[in-house]
Amino acid sequence: MHVFELQAAIFDLDGVVTRTADVHAAAWKATFDPLLELLGIAEPFDAVHDYLNYVDGKPRYDGIRSFLASRSVGLPDGTPDDAPGATTVYGVGKQKDALFRACLERDGIHVFPSSVALVEALRARGIKTTVVTSSRNGRLILRRAGISGLFDAVIDGRDLDEGGMRGKPAPDGFLKCARLIDVAPSHAVVIEDAVSGVDAARRGGFGLVVGVDRGGHAAALRANGADIVVADLDALDPDRLDDAMHERREQEAWRVDQHGFDPAREHAMESLFTVGNGYVGVRGAPDTLLPGSQGDLFVAGIYDRKHAARPYSEEEFLNIGGGDSLHAELVSAPFPFRIVLQVDGVPLDPSDERTRRYRRRLDLKRAVLQTETNFELASDHHVTIASTRCASAAEPHLLLQAATVTVGDRAADVAIDASLHDPDLGANHPHLSVLETGSAPGGIEFVRYGTQASSYELCIASRARYGNDDTHRWRTEINARGQIKLQRYVVVYTTRDTDDPRSAAIRDLAARDWHRFDDAFDRHAACWHDRWEASDIRVAGSYATEQALRFNSYHLHSTAGTKPYASVGARALSGRAYEGHIFWDVEIFMLPFYVHTAPELALNALRYRYHTLDGARQRARDCSTTGANFAWESTVTGEDVTPDKILLKTTGREIPIFTGAQQIHVTADVAYGVWRYWDATHDHVFMREAGAELLAETARYWVTRCTRGPKHHHIRGVVGPDEYHHGVDDNAYTNWMARFNLERAVEIAAWLTRDAPDRWSELCERIDLRHDEPAEWNALAGSLFCPGPDARGVIEQFAGFFDLDEYPLAAEERLKAPINRLFDWDKINRMKLIKQADTLMLPFLFPDQFTPEQLAANYHYYEPLTDHGSSLSPAIHGALAARLGLAADAGRYWRQSLWLDLSNAMTNSALGVHPACMGGTWQALVFGFLDVRFGDDGPTWADDAAARLPASWRSLAMNLRWRGTTHTVEVKR
Amino acid sequence: MKTLDTLLVLDDSSPASARAREYAERFAAQTGAACEVRTKVADLGAIGTHLLVVPSGSPDARAIVERTATAVMLTPAALPAPRPLWRAVVPLTGQPGGDAALEFTVRLAGALSMQVIAVHVADPNADSGTGLEAAAHYADAAHHEYPQQLKEFVQRALPQCSVAERAALTDLVLCRGDVIAELLTLVRERDADLLVVTWQGRLARKGSRLLERLAGALRCPLVIVKPVSHGPFRLKVGEDLE
């Protein structure tokens, strides 16, 4: 049983409450018909069709202009002083008003009894009732009808004029009314009989929109956004309205809707609306691309050398070292959903000034992207293109697209080109050159590309159908109110999957059956149904939180694949930033989400590390160490692709990059991931076949990377998670993680020796592991200096941190680090200024090793020094603040993290979404607010978990996987 | 899209307006636009032209810049004789919708065979109040974020420009310092013929002083471009959903 959410009802007047629509229509007809005759137009005013389409619901003068435009004529506006009957807009309006008032005088006002009954029922439940009407006579009509006392607020045409508000379909009047009665639009229902009124309510974001169809225009009301259409209000009561509102809001929490088109925000929207399945990701550009769209297709694991022809921007920043790798950059391939649409010979895209309406919807439940663009070529000449697309979760090589082109009241010559040809391949996708284009029976087209340096091939093939014609190009005359449909299969294969991607792609498409096209969408949705069963989080009391959590889960699932040669890049498969490089983000921030919702995806992330283990071994040798030293930025082979420095060309200034050589904690982070996965799944097969080897080789690395001191071993010259400080000694996070790595390797060596001695012997032989090495690891773990709490309970981030200069951190620098961080890197190195949680990672990852006092001491010491220059930081702070009971801090940090991409908080979501932040947000909720811990019997959570939840939440429910069992966590206030 | 249909010159018979007229005629000759001369501009809001050319010292200059929706070229008094235009400098802020000047200039460059240099000026004193300085902030790994963000700023400002049109943009410069001083330096060092800026609200509030400072020190015309409105935009998330 949900809480009653309906707080207000806003009624239109004419045709909804009062039976004045007929009077209006008659007055309009009596006004317009003589005028039309005067103008030499034979077709008279239709009191049904013309009234509903051009006049009803709109301010009087807008209605006149709208109707006359439909007859291809116009009148001068004139002035408000024009006499009734003058051939001006004002004159015509006054004429109609005079006729309307005369009718009222003569016939009186009639109300709909069912409407009055509904108003009274709502008021009896304490729900506010109001009227918003474009009629300038609104108040007069209510008074004459004797029902003024039933409404808490009234806004009529005079109020709109005097307040400078736009008429319907603008939502101004409705929004003003909601403000007057102090009710949020999302808690109000609008009841309207006019298409323009329904449209206005939808644009205003009202919680429910009811269409009243008294004249056969139910379809138009629904098309413009009515949630419910009724013939009369006797079909409604307060409970039904509230149920409908609740249902609608529940649906809204399963999708992300964009209304309107702004080219300057387009790249950020493309990132948010990416569809993907871990094998491919396609940014959410419109089907009808703009010249500047970045509709990239990314294929996991396909990298290339940084392209030689650098664009203008990189003239300013030249990366030196690292970027020379054959696999330095994730390759962007052309947009596979491109549709070139021409109507009457005119090419159209959403940035066109003729775009009347643009909607983009990410349906999270089914993981499909829907777009709809309505073009107004003339007042009676509309064309709409609507499409649905997905990257199949059931078949990783498959993309699906269905599109419909619908024309309005006038026939149109429509041409569509859905070919794969990209006219700007060289400029937009410089890593690729076309090796071959061709076709195959069944209307298949394909393009085979080769990467410039890394010698990968990928083949993108498409099969399209319009009606019963298998073709990618179609031109036809569509009759008025007619439509055509396009269905399209696209497949992607690369030489990382098969020796002959071209044959694989053609074979795949040729085997597909058009009768099973819809089934393909359904199979995809079925996979997502299973994912949501495992991972959805229900938050009673906050639809927006549910929506944002689902958005994050959607992207985390969309980018995790099943190929062992690829893992999740810093911006997933949704943008070019970070060039697809794989960081510690995966093991520390994302892996726990996968471990507890989709362990098979966690397994694949670790298989990727095993796949690159040889590269890590080579890197260790290159650094004169032993074992495996994982790359800070990893792509194909395990080599590190971090540049050594960047050069600012304009000034010739070089800025060193220390992370590649010094951020060595990633090696221990990989080991942590291995252990965490195994602990949560008891996947002994993985541990025997790959995990143990990963733990052993990473442990070996520390043996030679640590240096002996008088009392302890030390790790010198590193960069910790806080990347503002380089060349530091004994970074607490690095040393603690290295110790964890060593201890777990010892544990697994013992486990294997006991449980699978043959496997242990085989491993020792294969990697030349001496039998005394585990003892050596154990000794080092005991000897390694791991900074502990001082007298205040604070752990020093690294040796000498406490002695650094103070940095006055301004509030506006938080989460938005200024450019000084780049130019003044050396100065920052000497300051107490932290980019992201560093020492605080320790109580986050090892909660049992900190007392509440120690946690508080570290949080209160480090939090004020942190500018959150990384998207990874707020979630950790939110989690720890929640454990400490600091509700304000916890809520603020968690909200920043939760909505980081949806609010574009760091102004960089155009470059791709932040999956590690999403994983961190999930962890902050689970391991911070709920403080979940796992034991042999599954998860337990804090006794006071309910009290820690944000105040508006009534309950939270989610599932967590633990050792093969799904456990439900449910917390109620 | 044709970049310039009409240039409208305000000629108040001053020596400065004679030079303004010469510049307008040079523009018109190079772009194929019509050039009209008026002694007074009555209803600026209704003018269907694409560029108003006004001497920066004109008493009407400020009102014209504030009221018109059209791009305005202010011609400083001390301008040299016009030469074939070959290079323009445009500050790039990175603000969504705040860099209309770049699209205007890139399209103009196509008609004039002109090079365009975009400059992103980071002001260490944070908000200089001009609205021309780098509005965006950076985060995380510098070698990843900075190049990609700058590239994004350019692309965000040119969503409707083709690859061929975008080729007019030859350089993207990052510098740090006082935004006005940096722009003047770059115009001088690169021997630019035009400085093109986007009209910002903040520029409007401190308008006269800043425009005077820019126009007074420039030895080339200053073009001010008004941002383009793209209608309502809404992403239904967060509070909007709640």
Query: Quaternary arrangement of the chains shown?
Result: heterodimer
Helix and strand sequence of chain B: EHEEHEEHEHHEHEHHEE
Stretches with pLDDT under 50, minimum 5 residues of chain B: none
Given the C-alpha coordinates, what overall shape of chain A results?
globular
Total beta-strand segments of chain B: 10
Name the chain pair with the biggest interface and residue counts per chain. Answer: A-B, 83 and 59 residues
What is the number of strand segments of chain A?
A: 34
Strand order of the largest sheet of chain B: 2-1-3-4-9-8-5-6-7
How much β-strand is present in the residues of chain A? 15-25%
Whole-angstrom Rg of chain B:
18 Å
Output the radius of gyration of chain A.
Answer: 32 Å
Q: In percent, how much strand structure appears in the residues of chain B?
A: 15-25%
Number of helices of chain B: 8
Q: Whole-number average pLDDT of chain B?
A: 82
Q: Report the major sheet of chain A.
A: 10 strands, antiparallel
Taking the alpha carbons of the first and last residues of chain B, their distance comes to 42 Å
Structural class of chain B: alpha/beta
